[in-house]
Amino acid sequence: MLACSALFLTACGDSGSSAGNGTYCRVSSTSTTVKVDAAYMGESYTSVATQVSDDVVTYHSVYGYATQAEADKACANFKEEASYWLDGSYKVACSGTQVTVDEHSEYMGLASEGLVEAEADFNEMCGMLQNMAD
Q1: Which of 26, 47, 60, 103 has a CA between 20 and 30 Å from the CA of residue 92?
Q2: Which H or E run includes 59?
Q3: What is the dihedral of CA 70, 76, 79, 83, to 10 degrees?
Q4: Does 28 fall in a domain?
Q5: Number of structural domains, the chain?
């Protein structure tokens, strides 16, 4: 489902939270989407999970890195992960210090549960970020 490569892949409750040094995280949702927007130590992460049918949730995630070297390493790691998804449902694009990952996940009629799972994951990651920032 969600690829975790940055230290902070995080989210918070609907109201969001922030700490010093540019650390923040916010989760928002509608009936068909869940979005997280986070930053920690010069890096950023935004991901939108969208229910496109009863069976499918897509994820559009953008990872921002503080340096080109970090971005290049992450790009290589994400591309290696994509190589295992032979059906093409995991795509990676790298540009400058950003890596974009698009993922297509099937839930066999339970896509709404996939959104609930995504929101829970985002909120759990937010708690981890908050602990690191404190």
Answers
A1: 26
A2: strand 56-64
A3: -150
A4: yes
A5: 1
The answer to whether the CB of 66 falls within 8 A of the CB of 42 is: yes
Going residue by residue through the chain (134 aa), what tens digit of pLDDT does each one get?
A: 343 334 444 333 333 444 456 889 989 999 999 999 999 989 999 999 999 998 999 999 999 999 999 999 999 999 999 999 999 899 999 999 999 999 998 887 788 888 999 999 999 988 888 888 77
4: in domain: no
Please give the single-letter amino acid code of residue 80. E
**Residue 48 is part of which domain span?**
17-133
Say which residue the tokens 């986070």 belong to.
38
Q: Is 112 helix (H, G, I), strand (E, B) or coil?
A: helix
Q: Is 78 left (phi over 0), alpha (psi -120 to 50) or beta?
A: alpha
